[in-house]
Design brief:
Two copies of one chain form a homodimer. Chain A has 315 residues and is an alpha/beta fold. Chain A has a single domain, classed as TIM Barrel (Alpha-Beta Barrel). Helices cover 46% and strands 13% of the residues of chain A. Chain A has 14 helices and eight strands. In chain A, helix 2 packs across helix 3, helix 3 runs parallel beside helix 5 and helix 6 packs parallel to helix 7. The longest helix of chain A is centred in the first third of the chain and has 20 residues. Chain A is globular and about 60 Å long.
Chain lengths: 315, 315
């Protein structure tokens, strides 16, 4: 199986859930045992942190690999550690693919012409991870520079069985500043981006009907999510904002088709650092943080199954 | 001197030119001697390419450091080589700062909340390059996610004497697809972004009057450049599109104030690979590529001085 959405959907069906685990390591929040171990293996602060990030994410991957179809490492937290962090990001993505997970690199890249092509070549590996240095199945992409700047990403994605998720509606409080600008035809900027994405999704549809071009649509704007699902019927959605950012399962329900496909829902902090917050903080000691990761992942899976069409995956 | 624009302007005055040299290494175009040397020092293809990129950019820096105030490495070409490329990017930025150049990392980052802050912490070093792992003076930033997502970049930039350049009007043919969306008030998306940037520039103004928040405005749209210069009087501009992309010195003239400050003009391919194109291809042998870099840089400096207010810097 080559096509990105076909592979993603197969993974969602196999795991019976559209839950996506974000990998967002933060140095100040790391479990004590991870930090202690990293300090025995490295000395300078950036290398200690990079070693700890790799260890932390690798152990999260071991916990969630049997439970969910995909993970989404956030490039920013790794880049924050300089080249050592980039090495850790690479190792984490390799580990996730070794464990059979679909890997969506959340790097929000975007540039023009041959520069965009360089980003696509860098990250998009698709079905065969050796096709690119970073080996991701998919990459998040920023559309501000224009629809011609999406073309190189789409081309490489199609060639390699990879995918891209274009930012359409983000989950932050100020998302509307520019995304809500309304044109003379009454359509907002994010709706115009959605229209471009819809076209690209149709042009790249796999056997599942979904395209290789997806959209990021935040869970924090549920009405818009419902409208966008209708406007982009063949577009795989990546929905951030569940959990720590305030979105609940009911808010993401409109993202799915009747089979429970068409969307994946991300939680990062709420799973990575479950041991630091209730109810898991009471249930698990800090050195039981992996059990907290598992419990939080299972709770998210159950929550989404009970309140959205994705429940159909478990029947 | 701490403030980004104050430091940049001092460098522009010292070098008597606003010419900015982009560092855009492409493997297929490298001079033969650089490639041969890299092959003696590394074996796997990505390490060979990363070694060659570092060597190539380092030697360009040695040529241009006495001539121009700043360089702009393009992150995409380095990331294309995986972690080894990131290591090379880091080395190139360090080399440029060692040679006293202002370093603008062209990575077009953008994300929400603490993720945006992670990117800011990663790249922005400002006056003291040890303040961040990558050690850049400034970073290019994508505004699509909303004005609240610029805030973390602005905060870190101000603390560290660093700068950001927000994408306002890019230089690609399809730039208008989304950037030209016109609202009910008759203002286009890029003009709204410009308004937000103008406010941030005023709030972060240094003693030169220019802010720590700049704007990327392509040379390929000269009328808009003129309008944007008026709309953002305290905003330092980064003008791509000169040279290989088709913009000439006359097209960038409107970007400057009467002293020749307020804008820097980038050329990448036209300088990096001058030895591959006329008139330099005839004048210099492939192993004289550094002389071609110098000749192309001097020609660009003279062209801008003769056709724009930046000529005032040489008097």
């Amino acid at each position: 199986m080559h096509h990105f959405s076909d592979r993603l959907n197969a993974a969602v069906v196999a795991k019976q859930t559209p839950a996506l685990v974000g990998l967002d390591p933060r140095f100040d929040w790391l479990p004590p045992d991870v930090l202690t171990a990293a300090r025995t293996r490295a000395s300078d602060p950036l290398s200690v942190a990079a070693t700890a990030f790799e260890e932390f994410c690798s152990r999260i991957i071991d916990v969630v690999a049997p439970l969910v179809p995909a993970v989404k490492p956030q490039a920013a937290f790794f880049e924050q550690l300089g080249p050592a962090g980039c090495q850790a990001l690479h190792a984490v993505m390799k580990k996730a693919r070794d464990r059979g997970l679909v890997v969506i690199c959340d790097a929000k890249r975007g540039d023009i012409g041959t520069t965009a092509e360089a980003y696509a070549q860098a990250y998009l590996a698709g079905a065969d991870r050796d096709q690119s240095p970073w080996g991701a199945d998919a990459l998040t992409v920023n559309p501000y520079l224009g629809d011609d700047t999406l073309t190189p990403f789409v081309k490489v994605a199609q060639e390699r069985g990879a995918g891209i998720y274009v930012l359409v509606r983000t989950s932050n409080p100020g998302a509307g500043t520019f995304q809500d600008l309304t044109g003379a035809d009454g359509r907002k900027l994010f709706e115009r981006v959605a229209q471009a994405v819809d076209r690209l999704s149709r042009e790249t549809a796999g056997t599942s009907g979904y395209g290789a071009v997806g959209a990021v649509v935040g869970a924090t704007y549920p009405n818009e999510l419902a409208d966008l699902r209708i406007a982009m019927p063949q577009t795989p959605l990546l929905i951030p904002g569940y959990g720590a950012q305030g979105g609940g399962a009911a808010e993401v329900a409109a993202g799915f088709d009747a089979k429970g496909l068409g969307a994946i829902v991300n939680s990062s902090r709420g799973i990575n650092f479950a041991f630091r917050s209730e109810p898991y903080k009471t249930q698990f000691a800090p050195d039981e943080w992996e059990q907290a990761v598992e419990a939080a992942t299972r709770a998210m899976i159950a929550d989404i199954a009970s309140k959205t069409p994705a429940g159909a995956l478990q029947r």
